[in-house]
Write a structure and sequence with these properties.
A 4-stranded mixed beta sheet has the order 1-4-2-3. It starts with a helix and ends with a strand. The chain is 36% helix and 29% strand. The chain is an alpha+beta fold. The mean pLDDT is 90. A hairpin with a 4-residue loop joins strand 2 and strand 3. It has one domain.
Length: 108
C-alpha cells in the first residue's frame, strides 16, 4: 500500500466524523470526457471555506480571504485586522460555512 493511501486510512480512522473532499486541479478536468484521470498529490486534514464560485483550503489562506473582504477602519493595525478576521473565522466555523475535512489533492 502506498504512503498516500496509508495516510488517508489513518486520517479517516482518527477523524471518522470528517467528510473526505477531493480537490481536483483544473488541469485534470477538461474537454468533453465523462471521467478524468489524475494522481493523488497529497492528503491532509484542513479547513475548507466554500464560496459561491470557488473554495479555499487552509487556515492561513482562509484568514487572508476574510481580511481581503473585511470592511473595517483603515487606521487599524494589521494585527487588529487579523484579530477581527480570526473572530469571523470562528463565527463561520460555528455556522458551518467553514468546515474541517480530509482533503485529497488530485493533480495531473
Amino acid at each position: 500500500m502506498n504512503e498516500q493511501i496509508e495516510e488517508l486510512i489513518r486520517l479517516s480512522k482518527e477523524n471518522p466524523h470528517l467528510e473526505i473532499k477531493p480537490a481536483v486541479h483544473h488541469e485534470v478536468v477538461g474537454e468533453d470526457w465523462g471521467n478524468w484521470l489524475g494522481n493523488i498529490n497529497k492528503i491532509e486534514k484542513d479547513f475548507i471555506y466554500i464560496l459561491d464560485d470557488r473554495w479555499i483550503a487552509g487556515y492561513d489562506d482562509i484568514i487572508e480571504n476574510i481580511i481581503e473582504h473585511l470592511d473595517c477602519d483603515e487606521n487599524l493595525e494589521y494585527n487588529e485586522i487579523e484579530e477581527i478576521a480570526r473572530k469571523e473565522f470562528e463565527e463561520k466555523l460555528k455556522s458551518e460555512k467553514i468546515k474541517e475535512a480530509i482533503i485529497i489533492y488530485i493533480i495531473v
